[in-house]
What does this fold into?
Amino acid sequence: PRLDTMAAEGMRFTDFYCSAAVCSPSRAGLLTGRYHVRMGINTVFFPQSKDGLDDDEITIAELLHERGYATACIGKWHLGHLPKYLPTRHGFDYYYGIPYSNDMHVEKRGDPPVPLMRGEEIIEQPVDQSTVTKRYTEEAVRFIREHKDRPFFIYLPHTMPHVPLYVFEAFAGKSDAGLYGDVIEEMDWSMGAILDTLKELDLDENTLVIFTSDNGPWLHYGEHGGSAGPLREGKGCTFEGGMRVPCIMRWPGVIEAGRVERGMACTLDFLPTFARLAGGEAPADRPIDGEDIGAVLRGAGKRAHEEFHYFHRGEHQAMRSGQWKLKRPFKGLVYAKPIEHGTLLFNLRDDPGEQNNLAEAHPEIVERMEKAMDNFWASLQPLPPDKK
It folds into this structure.
């Protein structure tokens, strides 16, 4: 009920996108405002990975830290676990969480037990995953209380509901939707605890709170993976189910209560938007793919360009322009599921489930968007090699 209340008190987006269909690339885009291909982060990092988010990338935390904000990352990082890549080297004053995915403990691959870190130190290994949502929430509430008298920024990427699923004992069996439902109940409680803290401290009207996701549901895991509802496919895929995600934004006094925003926006927009809200600007020395959507929050306008590019594993697979989405031919496996199709064109306003291919009916739109994709891909060159 707390997420429903948050939406009723704020705004929810119908056409909101994460920047990639899997964890590490998506998080890189969210924090930098740049498509992950620009950074060579095209797949997920593992416990054996030697790479991570380069120190010359500028994150939201770095920009806000320069403006006097206290900054914390609490939760799943997944942008490099070696010290030089940790949140504390990317503008965050404080870090508490798991440095990569909670499923990365495969003995035959040589993975160590999943660690919990504070700062740059491992404090528990293996971490008790049934307590992480509760502990992340407590850390976030504590950080808010300790910094209530100055501006703060908290990036709280929950480990759940990534598989394997764990839930604190107080929420076990609480839902009518099995373990996955119990996990969502606990996350709902978590958001409520944070919002209650802001209200108690009279910080409510000074604080923008956002709830969203880094990719779509992991359908490979069935009832433990979640659902994309009417959208096609899920995580790891550039159909809408892989990258169109829920997004709720709440800011009393700024965002009109109960709004439904049907214009397009994405996680790439966070950096330029937050920079401007904090009285600064996005970096001018590099391409920033996101846009300042402050006017969207205030109900005073739309995103300047309704254009979005879908990348996966370094491939430029699709593009959205207004209501139209062009998807290039594909043949391959997505989490062991074979997917094959030719050129696809969808009108997402009429067909968000991507069931009606209009490519043959509108060759002129296909040609225009193919050319736009080619031009954008050319503008990205030269791209760095893939990080591993």
User: Anything to note?
Assistant: The chain has two domains: 2-306, 310-380. The chain has a mean pLDDT of 97. The chain has nine helices and 15 strands. The domain at 310-380 is CATH 3.30.1120.10 (Arylsulfatase, C-terminal domain).
